[in-house]
Specification:
Elements: E1 5-9, H1 14-25, E2 29-33, H2 42-51, E3 56-58, H3 65-74, E4 78-83, H4 90-95, H5 97-117, E5 122-128, H6 155-180, E6 189-195, E7 197-199, H7 218-226, E8 233-236, E9 248-249, E10 251-253, H8 254-271, E11 275-280, E12 286-287, H9 288-299, E13 305-308, E14 317-318, H10 323-329, H11 337-350, H12 361-371
Parallel strand pairs: 1-2, 1-4, 2-3, 4-5, 5-6, 6-11, 7-10, 8-13, 9-14
Antiparallel strand pairs: 9-12
Helix pairs in contact: 1-2, 1-8, 3-5, 5-6, 7-9, 7-11, 9-11
GO cellular component, one term: cytosol
InterPro entries: Epimerase_deHydtase, NAD(P)-bd_dom_sf, UDP_G4E
GO molecular function: UDP-glucose 4-epimerase activity
Length: about 375
């Protein structure tokens, strides 16, 4: 299979930037579109430092169809899209749901329309375990398999579930329309990647998660507590029916998650499966208290926290059953929770200002030495 050119929407964000890095390291050409709402262009420099290659970047909004058209016009060799661009905070989505639908759902429609006009036929969609909602409402659905009924409990999850339906309808329509014209239509494909909780940083210590405002995920919040930017972690609820009363999540290292996007893209281009959903997770759930303990161990001291009430839309257990991805994509999470905590602490401790500072000289020297 020849590698091609890939458009990565939201490619300067946390997961998008690591996926762009994985694509470049696999010799794909990468074009990024991102409006930099919650990210930094500096990650492009870090990608280049690590891979020796630099993705092209357009600063544009995913809802701007003419701007998307121009990108595809400029790069007629793009044959696939990995779609991350979205607002992504569960709590915030309950406060401003219309904005979440405008960006996440309307933005996806704009992207699909532009892709179709330019005959770009493969899309890997960044979905979420939140589409499942509370899987404990069914018997034998923990860890969660892909056939678990969809039932999101918050607006963010509903935008992801809606996008899955839109993408499915679109790809199936394109295939059917092609068959009516006597063509195969097999070139139209979509991967719906439902991933669990991304964590960690690049082991080099020069690339990681750099949220522009308040982080919405547990580990970046803990990291801010560890460097003194935050007084303590708020634990939302300790009255769940888990072993210690806190919610259970499946934490997957960002490098494993990025690799999952690469293998899913290759699968679409090789196997032409139509629309297929895959869970990307470890299959191992950890409670919030276990996470605090694991990250505190990486830091070398206990980190302060306070238990407060549950958040609206949160569920007891989001642990993946990754068997389908293991078997079909030949993908499996290789790195551990401990790896994620150690890598995140290395990044946070040495880059307290994130991308708003130069990477540590000793890490750059190690990186250069490793390439010789």
């Amino acid at each position: 299979m020849t590698v091609g050119s890939v458009l990565v929407t939201g490619g300067t964000g946390y997961i998008g930037s690591f996926t762009a890095l994985a694509l470049l390291e696999a010799d794909y050409k990468v074009v990024i579109v991102d409006n930099l709402y919650n990210s930094s262009k500096e990650c492009l420099n870090r990608i280049e430092l690590i891979s020796g290659k630099r993705p092209e970047h357009y600063t544009l909004d995913i809802t701007d169809e003419p701007a998307l058209d121009k990108v595809f016009d400029d790069h007629p060799d793009i044959d696939s899209v990995i779609h991350f661009a979205a607002l992504k905070a569960v709590g915030e989505s309950a406060e401003i749901p219309l904005e979440y639908y405008r960006v996440n759902v309307y933005g996806t429609i704009c992207l699909l329309r532009s892709m179709t006009r330019h005959n770009v036929t493969n899309i890997v969609f960044s979905s979420s375990a939140t589409v499942y909602g509370d899987a404990t409402r069914f018997e034998n659905m923990i860890p969660i398999p892909e056939h678990c009924p969809i039932g999101p409990t918050n607006p963010y999850g509903r935008t992801k579930a809606t996008n899955e339906l839109i993408i499915t309808d679109h790809v199936e329509a394109q295939r059917n329309n092609a068959k009516k014209e006597g063509k195969s239509g097999d070139q139209w494909n979509a991967a719906l990647l439902r991933y669990f909780n991304p964590a960690g940083s690049h082991p080099s210590g020069i690339m990681g998660e750099d949220p522009q405002g308040v982080p919405y995920n547990l580990l970046p919040l803990l990291a801010q507590v560890a460097v003194g930017k935050r007084e303590k972690l708020l634990v939302f609820g300790d009255d769940y029916s888990s072993k210690d009363g806190t919610a259970i999540r499946d934490y997957i290292h960002i490098l494993d998650l990025a690799a999952g996007h690469l293998v899913a893209l290759n699968y679409l281009r090789d196997q032409h499966p139509g629309v297929r959903a895959w869970n990307l997770g470890t299959g191992k759930g950890s409670t919030v208290f276990e996470m605090i303990k694991s990250f505190s161990h990486a830091v070398g001291r206990d980190l302060p926290y306070e238990v407060v009430g549950r958040r609206a839309g949160d569920v007891l257990d989001l642990t993946a059953n990754p068997k389908r991805a293991n078997e079909e994509l030949k993908w499996k999470a290789k790195l551990t929770l401990e790896d994620a905590c150690e890598d995140l602490w290395r990044w946070t401790k040495n880059n307290p200002q994130g991308y708003r500072q130069q990477p540590p000289a000793e890490f750059l020297e190690k990186l250069k030495a490793g390439k010789k």
